[in-house]
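Can anyone check this?
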Amino acid sequence: MRIRHISQAAALAVAGFTATAIPVSASPWAEVGDNQLRSDIQLLAAAGVVNDVTTHWPLPWRSILSNLGQASLAGQPAGVRMAADRVLARARRETAPGANGALYLDLTSRTALVRGFDGMGRGEGQAQMSLGYNLSNISARLSVGLLAQDLERKHYKLMFEGSYLSADIGDVRVYGGYLDHWWGPGQISALSLSNNARPMPQVGIQRASTDASSWPILRWLGPWQVEFLLGYLDGPRIERDTYYNALRVTVNPAPGLEIGLARTQQFCGQGHTCEPLRDYFAFGNDNRNVNNTNDQGLFDIKYSFGIAGVPTQIYMQVMNEDSSPIVQSGSSHLFGASVFVPTDENPVRLAAEYTDSIATHHIFSFGDVLHGVAYNNGAYPDGMRYRGRSLGFSLDSDSRLFSLQGSWTDRGGRFYQLSYHRAHVNHPANTLANVVSPNPVQVNLGEARVTLPLARLKLDLAGRYQDDQARPRRGAAVTVEAALRIDL
């Protein structure tokens, strides 16, 4: 039944491409979603080959090309040189001028409980086609597809994920469309803004290159990126006509050190006065002066270094639901580390990560918790969510996730990944909302995944086993998922 329904969407996508012969897909950014690419970039950063912003996705290809063009690979292990070759080839291919297009198909027996940087489909099936054009300073893409949340019920939604229009104006890039973002160093989770939810319609502005500033006062910050976006939270919502903005500044002031600061905000909406400029600069929020908006503050730090020649990274991220980090912030936490274990060819990346959205009273009060605070808000009942998913952590409010992950790329470019997740979803004391599971549940989940590059095709295959499920479902479950991308 599922295969028959998704084949209908696939047939529509294939029909759209039969009349056109298009070169390989291109983009001005390294986009969210490819763990092999991200792992290569992280390896280059940990080995000291790339000294730039790597926690603020999408990443501008211009900066990556500049870094690799100036890098010296003399004396670097073979695995680092191979990673540099893969990233450089990808950057040149995606920045090539001209027309581009792709067809994407995804089918699964059940959507993944834990959605990381390399998350696959957001429904049981989807089919999408895209057409784009790349110039030196203007890029555009139109992506149209169908998302099937439930194939048995024929519940299809039209989607435009990945569509955008982007233009470089000097050192600034302006864009509009439906773009995924990943703000932070986490491999499995990002607390405030990730690709967990579908991308909302948005306009934004960012630096087109992350080069260090030439201004004497700012030069010490090193490579840096700043981005501001404005989005509209459309679709089914309790609080209609709500808007969203997000600002992030990321700096690289010393070799291997990245620091990120971000602020996200919901504003306007039914029942709220709509004065964006006044409300944006209202930072205080207490019982006497309650904000008219729903705000989050974010701080993260990542340090890349070598231990006995082994590239290593450690990182953390803190998200505050209020403005003060010390008095009453409602802080969620993320901690992680990864090492690149040398082999004869490409190194094996081993990572451990812990995410906790049971908010603490402030950033250091780990025993003093505030249940139901993360992603929820009394004035905005939908919370920091879009189309049924949190904008950040995939397990939503009052949840904990411990993950172990190992990955490796072989000489043929095939990418292998094994993951183990221990998830505590929701908490009995959460009286507000958790959209993943209305009742608490503990799940052990294992996933094996392989990515196969086949000429103009890329095939992702994943198999998952979990010993329980988000409520109301119960019991163990086995899931398989396949995603095919065809560059034409």
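Reply from J.R.: I decoded it. The radius of gyration is 22 Å.
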